[in-house]
Amino acid sequence: MSEPSFRPPDLPAGPPAPLPLVTRWALLVLALLSLALGVTGIFVPVLPTVPFILLSAWAAARSSPRLLAWLESHTSFGPMLIEWRRGGVVRRRAKWMATVVMGASAAIMLGVVPNRWVAVLAIGCMAGVLAWLWRRPEHLADEATPPQA
């Protein structure tokens, strides 16, 4: 019979090791490009805003605490980023806006894109994104849900 082996308790890993300088710069470039695309998406219906802002925040969290702090304190982006981080929350208004914009983009593509298969492929991708989006929670778990009508 063997003696029971002693296993030390799991200790916290501590702060992660800093990333190499080249990696941090690459992530900063990704954060800035994603932010630029997200802001452009506010004005261009076919370009989504939220995924690019989320990608920007992810990359900034690993490369630039200052950019991340700016994003989180921004009046438009901050609440969205904080809710996403706390529970993957996407508010109903944002879901409806995405649905309307993607629907309009689909209609425009069907009328303008010469190759029908390209439009159908893009519309299929948008439908997949919308199906995923509408499955996201609309409120934080610690918030009281509004009464149903």
Would you give an account of this structure?
- The protein has 149 residues and is mainly alpha-helical.
- 65% of the residues lie in helices and 0% in strands.
- It has helices at 21-43, 50-63, 65-73, 77-87, 92-112, 116-134.
- The chain is globular.
- The mean pLDDT is 85.
Biggest beta sheet summary? none
Q: What is the multimeric organization of the chains shown?
A: single chain
Order of helices and strands: HHHHHH
Enumerate how many helices there are, as a single number.
6
**Protein structure class:** mainly alpha
Mean pLDDT: 85
User: Which stretches are poorly predicted, pLDDT < 50 over at least 5 residues?
Assistant: none
Strand content: under 5%
